[in-house]
Batch of 4 targets.
Target 1
Amino acid sequence: MQLMEATDFNVTTTPWLVILGLCVVMALVRLIAPKFYSHYLWSGDHKMIGKQFLVSSLLWAVVGGALALGVRWQLAWPGTEVPGFKQLFNWADGGAAPEHYNVMFTMHASVMIFFVIIPLLVGAFGNFVVPLQLGAQDMAFPFLNALSYWLMWPAFVFMAFSFYVPGDGAGAGWTSYPPLSETMLGDGQTLWCMGVWFVGWSSICGSVNYITTIVKMRAKGMQLFRMPLTAWSILITSILVLCATPVLGSAVTMLLMDREFGTSFFVPAARVVSETAQATGTGQVILWQHLFWFYSHPAVYILVLPAMGMVSDMLANACRKPIFGYRPMVYSMAGIAFLGFIVWGHHMFQSGMNPALGRTFMIATMMIALPSAVKTFNWLATIYRSQMKLEVHTLCSLAFVSMWIIGGLSGIFMAATPVDIQIHDTYAIVAHIHYVVFGSTLFGVFGSIYYWYPKMFGRFMNKPMAYTHIIITFIAFQVTFFPMHVVGSRGMLRRTADPYFYGNLQGMLPVNQLMTVAALILGAAQLILAVNFFWSMFAGKVCTERNPWKATTMEWNTPTPPVGHGNFDVIPVAYRGPYEYADPAAPEDFTPQFQPLTSAEKAQGQARAH
Amino acid sequence: MAQSNATPTSRPVLLVLALALVVLLCYGMRVAFEKPSTALKLALPASAGVNATFTLEDGSRMPGTGNLLVDDELVAVQRITAEGSPVNSGILLLTNQHTFKVLERGAAGTKAVDHAAGAAVKEPGTLFFPENFASFGDAVDELFYLILWITGIAFILTEGFFLFCLFSFWGKPGMRAAHTHGNHKLELIWTLIPAVILVAIALLQAGMWKSMKMEIPEAGAPNVFEAQVAAKQFEWNFRLAGSDGKFATADDVPAVGELHVPVGRKVRIVQRSMDVIHSFFLPNYRVKQDVVPGLAVPVWFDTSRAGRFPIMCAELCGLGHTKMGATLVVHEVAEFELWLKAESTKWASENDGIDRPDWSGASSKVWWWWDQNDVAVHYQGETTNR
């Protein structure tokens, strides 16, 4: 697939032309097929926007996953061509050159964070589930909601183009530290900045919408402390997004201006660009790191909080038991969000930042382990003395809890500043982030897909396929990522194309090959999910029940799938808390929020009021 | 009616089983993480210069060639083995009769797993960390293992409980889960216990961090050896003061890719970068510090053993990042003084009569740039100079 010659590009115009072309296509579709347009393209319906986010994120996950396998391939068989990459990315060396290795890990992280995890959690499930859980007919601002999805598309175009421009794609890591990201890289880096900028806009539009919806559009009786934890997590995440993303947007704008318009926000004094030239500015290199991590540390919680909320919902359902300590769960999420803003410096312990500041950040970082621990213990207490029901989302939420323990505990090593000296920028960090973002968040996402799929598409996903997918993924995940803790703390650096250049790392080749083989299996297992996802849409077992999982939250009070724009055929009223499972006084082991109070309950409530 | 599926009589049994699981896992951890402590047993001949045979007491193996510490003196081991495979007995070529310890088992390329299978008095690198030679490194390693113990126990308790639940609480028809919404006392307990532990870890490391990053030995203080590091894409440039003890003079000793220092001194390094951010990483000395353009960042460590150690670039610096390595060469004091004198004389004669020292070779421009653009030594956001 020779897309076009790299030299044919005009970076400043081509992506814009493509975006313009997309707009023209949309306008044409609107003229020719207005119903198709308003239903599938520019839909104001939160359910359709959620599905749009879901499908585009899953497609980008294929790209991000392929890039990850490219990275793993290089670590197992350094300097060899990655099968298919020559054709896919138009690289003559097939990804064997170090500059292409840099592009692979940079774009793997960028794609997975900006195009997969954030849109999946907030965009797809936040959109689809939250209004239903609140008993709202739609989001507060349907237009803004559609805008937040379609603002992703310029980002998609820019990021996709960045692979093919002269001078290669963005290769400064997803953190894009200047000066490397300023002068040393080609136009791919500019397109990366543009992409991130649009993602930022999309997130901001979304977060305003979620906050308004959750604050203003709850059904009658849906008090804040009757909201399911998914809704709570999206509310807290949206506040994080709203406060943090403008900082990233500003930082990226500054980087763009440094690159394209000759400013010197991040250009230090006496820097040498080439043998002959010096570019001297009055900027501070470390300023970028402060700005970037001021967004990106909260972003780490943006990457996991919604999954925590969704897993809490699924776990209570799977265990047939109320979530243990509902209010502490909410407070601990709020605590994580608050502390998330004052710990960004722990990414910068070795950056040349004043070490006295490092100490402050270390203590704040230790504190953030507390709310995380509270959540873990509460999940464990939820499982204790429960009546677990074997479903796919049961396995996923159990996987989430157990992997979150590992990801959380390994974080304590990094928070300890002297230990961080040794493991900073090594595979120990890679292991930690993947235990949190893959082991926890993605298992939460898998579970959510299996859990809410019937409500979305009116069909169940295929169970045997789902079990196969989850079990292979879980095992391959452990083999891929657990050894990274060990090789990392022994000194294997991340972001090095050929670590075996160093004599002290040569012995790690066999372990890396093992990890790569496991990663390939891990990647292949996701094909099962892809097949299952699209096949079940048309051929899965039809679900006509409103509440197939016997759940208690409001979204199960709509027809399956919810018909049309506007969600409820009955006026939704919330009568009780979100997790009323196993009430000994109730006729069944679950009492949904929307089930009217019995006379006994009414009498009890009145007695309490007096 | 609501019932737990674990009946009152079966509950103690399950509890005992879970506790047994935890104890078993703890014991497994102890075996897995225990530092090897077996000694090298030698049958030594009385006279010097002959072969000595050795056996490892516990029957564990010693792969590759390595170094021995003989009365604080480093002796290379030439071990005769069949086909170079790991053995538990062999022959050493020694120069004298001493008590000694194994310092470094295995040359470059020895598998990590072989490093871990221990047979040494001196810790030859643990399962997780490479061997340490810095004075502050032992404390770091101890902190690492302390955290490993704490998190390991927390891991076993939580995951053990998780597994216990996983095997005990599958739903049975007609049964209902315990109807509870939480327990404030319990939650208070499991908030406070981690809080105390975390605060303890935080307090414990504060002093360590201070001694590593904040108490940089001052230039010119006794027993402090100074060196300069100029990082550029993709090489490490090092400069030592020549015989006159001053930098930016004709007899300075520049080098690319090799940092030579004497043993037994505190090494103070001032680092600057010409282009992008690099990171000076010495895994065997527990040193890592980003080299930031526009700043002159100090870093220090002390040398206790002669030898060669890897220097790595830990921060992505471009397409050549992966090959940006260098070597730290720690010399014996007498050897170092001879070496420095010879190098210094060589460079002084090359620069003789030139007003602006025109160092030849790849590093010339680097040091010209360094001397032209003076920067005070400090961290970002710090007002005092170091």
Target 2
Amino acid sequence: MLKMTPLNQAHRDMNAKMVDFGGWDMPLHYGSQLDEHHKVRQDAGMFDVSHMLPVDVKGNDVRGFLRQLVANNVDKLTVSGKALYSCMLTPQGGIIDDLIIYFLSEDWFRIVVNAGTADKDLAWMLKQRDALAPSLEITPRRDLAMVAVQGPNARAKVWQVIPNSQAATEELKPFQSAIVGDYFIARTGYTGEDGFEIMLPAANATAFWNALCDARVAPAGLGARDTLRLEAGMNLYGQDMDETQNPLESGLAWTVDLKSERDFIGKQALLDTKVAQQLVGLVLIDRGVLRGHQEVIGEKDGVEYKGEITSGGFSPTMNQSIALARIPVQIAVGDEVSVVVRDKKLRAKVVKYPFVRNGKVLV
Amino acid sequence: MSIPTNLKYSKSHEWVKSEADGTVTVGITHHAQELLGDMVFLELPDVGRKLKQKEECAVAESVKAAADVYSPISGEVIEVNSPLVDEPGKINEDAYSAWLFKMKPSNPAEIDAMLDAAAYTELVENEDH
């Protein structure tokens, strides 16, 4: 039996094509994935992301616990409502999950984790809590729904639907959030566009979704979500990284704080790591479509190398194929690589990602 | 969308139209494009290539996946729909007018043995359940 979000019926009412996404019955698209993609880049779209799990951590010195639990440094969070992207690591430095931590007060932080990893994340957090800070209360919030409204007009549309939220949220900078009545509104997202991610009581989710629809926010499915995040150069857990990979070789070194004195789970392993791989962007030169798991091959300074595409697809904004690939660190931006696609070797150029941000192509 | 009765169908979701001059036109069905989603890339066979029935002869890629197209019958490729390569989305708009290639059949009996609209409708309905 697939798990359903509070918006399941709303998706079906909108004729969504539903798919099994890690055990969740989720909308892939509502007709055309390409149209949904363009709508988000050019206007506003909305995604049901209620399959992701908010986890509240409450009690005395939550900050002290999170300093040890995650690889980024929660001491960067000084203003209430501020958010931080981080990885949670195994002692060996493998990535258990990537997540966002919201600082609400010294005795209340909220962590949002991926759907597919939610159970294992929660078990890991509870285990670490028991060892490091047994007095803390950790509560999964399946009673909340989450809707991402994304695109250049997304915020204005949200203010149209929740007028009393405007005053509290219009000054929010990226990665800041505010609580307005029943709504938790964060200026975050997974598309490379402006917008909000909004948590609200599950019982109100359908009314909110329909009101956004009336405000001409286009429903967008997991298909568009994937092409948008790929263009935005954002990692997808399970594809671009997992427990067998560390953040330093997954394009996530910027999320790891190795400078501060504090110890965190996985820190020593990262300090001992000799970084041999990197995550790069690829733009396909030849005709075709790059896909995950295709082999990347080439020669650099007379030495043959191999790598692998971790995420690939067609970029609707660029109208050509792009990918993220894990290849040896010796290969530089501007180099040309070959990708094995069926029986052919296609040429691709190594680029620095993101590929697209705020509607503009950057590569 | 109704399934045209003037065409024949393969189990792998290609359609075939018999032309007056004895050649056939080949495409993929509405159901196939629906399964694949928005089409973004096409690779068509070379003109002059001799195909066996069920041989992989083209690739249709959507935002979601790559799908092989199989030759519904044996014969020689005599023309390909080159403009379609630049506008693969036309397949999503109307799968039965966005043809992929034309063939000169080497064994016309193979066409007769293909599914008619009623049999193909049944195949698609069984797949949906």
Target 3
Amino acid sequence: MTPRDRIRYFFSSHRTGLSVCLLALFLLVYPAWVGNPYLLGISNLIAVYLIAVIGLNLFIGYAGQISLGHAAYLGLGAYGSALLTVHLGINPWLAMAATAVAVGLTAFLVAIPTLRLSGHYLAMATLGFNIVCYTVMMQWDRVTGGPSGLAGIPHLSLAGVAIDDETRFHYLAWGAAILVLTLGLNLARSSLGLALAAVAQNETAAASLGIQVHRAKIRIFVLSAVLASVAGSLFAHCYTFINPDSFTIFNSVELVTMVVIGGLGSIWGSLFGASLIILLPEFLHFFETFRDIIHGLIVVTVLILLPQGLVSGLKDLLRMRLLRKANNARN
Amino acid sequence: MNMPTLTDSLQFLFAGLTNGAIYALIALGFCVVHNTMGIVNFTQVDLVSLGGMFLYSALFLFGLPMPLALAGAVTAAAVTGMAVERVGIRPSRSDNHLVLIFLTIGLSVILRGIMKLAWGKNRMAVPPLTADEPIRLFGATILPQILWIFLLTAGAVLLLIWIFRRTTLGLCMRAVASNADAAAVVGIDGGRIRMISFAIAGGMGGLAGALVTPITTLSYDVGVLLGLKGFAAAILGGFGSFVGAVAGGVLLGVLESLAAAGLSSAYKDVIAFGLLLLVLFIRPAGLFGSAKR
């Protein structure tokens, strides 16, 4: 092996790790480069959503299941954190952890009967769960504040320093997001990830290979719910105010849209999908009236032309083109 | 809490049956498309809103008399359904159901955007089909509109069953539903059948919207919750079964109304969807569904 080959081999075998490092490096200097709190606020929102979207992508993209109710877990995380800190005065970090555990347990109990369902029945059940959670957040106003929401949620703080401005929150949120991204990339190649891919292809075949289908599905569902809960908690502690309107079925659909646009089963795609959907309103600012239509048109166009999502789809297109070129050169 | 009197109970029962009839109509729209394409068509939700919108425009913009306006609204909703299939779904090269379902969600966002643009975000009022003189029945009062809802829903259901059981078109639709490839081999144009199933779904949704908006109010997103309850009704009955859709709709409507009366009206959605989840946990394929998906 020549040194050049060795370098090439190093890069190709470590491309995932190197990409993550590159992204981390970029994010490390990003606040110094941008500095504008408004822009940082937007990228922070991307980080928070990314955590939930990666979890959802593991469930939809890898396990091939459907959930139209993940905003409910986002909401449970946000409200759990908010209620524990506002009403009981518990330390925000502790509240976040306790909420994540509680949401994980809830998701486990919900998953046992729910994940026996499949297809449209599963879509309905997750949708129904979201509507139930939203209605309780709206109607139980003595505790949740009802439609006017909950204010005065404390910021997180680290070693006595409150994480109360965009730059500090940038490091927290993106730190967490990079961690989750790495987790997602690794999980996809772990035995659980491969088991889930088999389940997505054919449940019966997967079961005959010795995969405990129901258990694998429950595991990934609980993981995705916990990630959504953490994202919800971060959301609450970042904005110090929440109301039920952030956790409707439309938000669930938006989360799914981020997964689908980026590409089912593509973790890097999730990063792209979350960024695109959150940045879109910023670009469409000046024609507010057409926002929904353009939003929908983008989703529909992507799904019709590149049903495997923008990132995976464009990658496939590029690969096909290169192959064709190589073929032509040979002939 | 006071025990509701017999009259009150009857009143709630009528309210529940009314909602149930509307849910049943919407559920049938979901079922027709599911049977020919195997997907949940989430644009059904907006076709319900569109039914009300078209009725409003036919009455106040074109000044049509009520029967013509109703017919026009249902037709326009059916045509919209066809357009959605032709422009939005048929060009898709994917046969992955997940992708197709998300596609209908995207189309639904577009439809709501267009409605917001065309009719605005304000709430509007639509007049009922005939004069608003309440009728007294066993001590309960009911609006004539409710009788119209029962009558027209029953008519639409019978028409649908007649089409499916007695006409060549219905035979073709059942053929595509049972095996699209085999149907194509004997010369049935699957694309056309799917478009017709969208038209029927649009008509059903439009009729539901045009009938219910005089009792509720009309806005661009009125169909969302109604439509999702229609979907819930279809699932409750076993997705794809017409009898199940009607039974599921009526059951959901009545249970919801009685729960609102006896327990809490603020939490009636919780009760409705909670019950649905419970049924699904016990019978994962719905009440009338078969075990196979």
Target 4
Amino acid sequence: MLSLFAHWQTLKQNPRNAWIAWIALGLLLVALPFLSDWTLGRSWVRILAFVLLYVMLALGLNIVVGFAGLLDLGYVAFFAVGAYLYALLASPHFGIHLPFWVLLPLGALVACVFGVLLGAPTLRLRGDYLAIVTLGFGEIIRIFLNNLNAPINLTNGPQGVNLIDPVSFGDFSLSKSHDLFGINFAPVHNYYYLFLVIALIIIFVGFRLQHSRLGRAWAAIREDEVAAAATGINTRNMKLLAFAMGASFGGVSGGLFAGFQGFVSPESFTLIESVMVLCMVVLGGMGHIPGVIVGAILLVALPEALRYLGPLQQSLFNKVLVDPADLRMLLFGLVLVVMMIFRPSGIWPSPTRQRELTPEDGIANQEKESVYDANR
Amino acid sequence: MPIASTDTLLRVHSVTKSFGGLMALSEVSLSISRGQIYGLIGPNGAGKTTLFNVLTGLYHADHGEFQLNGIHLANKKPHKIAQHGLARTFQNIRLFANMTALENVMVGRHARTHTGVLGAILRTPHARAEEKEIRDRARELLSYMGIAAFAEDLAKNLSYGDQRRLEIARAMATDPQLLALDEPAAGMNATETTALKKLIEKIRSDGLTVLLIEHDMKLVMGVCDTVAVLDYGEKIAEGSPQEVQRDPLVIEAYLGCAP
């Protein structure tokens, strides 16, 4: 896989080959649900949809953690806000049924407001302290969702909200099978394509933000906040903007999640979710969008793939020696530890980030300098 | 060489700052004319950097005030002060270490550009033009400082002298009226210091006013029009380099009291 990444770098230098690679990737993404239907089975289409959902989440958190360097351990709160907003405004719970195209932007907006609400009191905090406060915020949101069923039943408490309206565009409901161009699209296919489109939009927005004066200002704050302020950057506003943008991505994915599942409950928004999304960002390559995408794909798909270890043991030894669920967490932990030892900058770090963690480079340059000085 | 201008750019009026019981600055007043190179010297711990930090908004003064171009800036936020035209470098270099030299200078243009979230996402013609302006100006400044060759290198991989130059380039990218340099010659060899002297003179002749903290007396005496001396947080002398060098109080501060 690593050689694949190296290959990618050389690909970029040849525009014609790059186009061919892009088109191939595009066709693969379009054909993927049918390919997996055909090979691995329908359950994998669902997993693919979840991969895309987590790609969106990870890219949102990447803005806060990767770009601006603010360690946020309560990111799942924004996912929850988006999901519950969708659930409450499109279900029999309140009898409100707003259309999808209203709810998605609204979810982004409300999550954005929550992002600023969390960001504002934490502006002076950095590193560990920020992590603790954001962790608390994530838990507060979850506990609120759990307990806001009395005195007025707002969230329906631990039972969660059921019978959420499926995503639909007019009469075209994504939760029904459709025959288009002679191909039968099952609901899970429809959702896959919806998620794909929105994930692509989020990737695009992420790239554009990173390569703008805003992205540079975030990087400057990450590198040295004092110097950034002295260089004329309004650090308060830029940090709030990072929280707001990250949160709005989370809100969008939350809304999609609610529509896809048809059911939300506070259990889906625990601390471990925040930690998983953070792992995707760190493991993939903090601040590097392609890396974060790879991180999300691996961390969603890998545990699912490890499920096959149960049947495999059954067929090999006629009994299950290690419970696949235990094995999954064990291997997962192992992968994380090994990664941090051998590729601390992530699976696919940005080229600059890679240089950052290779100290030889700096020393070699210094050596060169002193030789240069001596010659002078 | 001194420019006979009475047009005051920076006026500092009885700025006082203490840390607990330690009086870092007491009633410091000075005024810098437009186009001057103004030196600020003094023994270690005299309060020079503290004054810089107050002027650039990193510290709040206990009392006192200062104006740049007649605008009161005391206790304003650092980014506001930078936007009003006071840019600085740091005594212990504070570059964005893991960004390229070019990006470092491009960050300096932040205060003078306006593209927002929508402009950045949609890359509107205006945003694109602005981005090009930022890049062109940053490259221009790198050439101006003589470090254009390192544009794509990470800031932390530059040599010490080049990092100092890069910091000046970043400060100049904010289009300052007053450029405040905190010990720019620290750690430089004689050749580099001579080059720095030429550079500071070039910056002045291009219309900027320079406030210079420096320990290298040859540099200070050679380049400054006016020199102020701080000792224990108080201004003990101010005048031309020659006057200051003869001042008995200054000699005492640096060499101790005559027996």
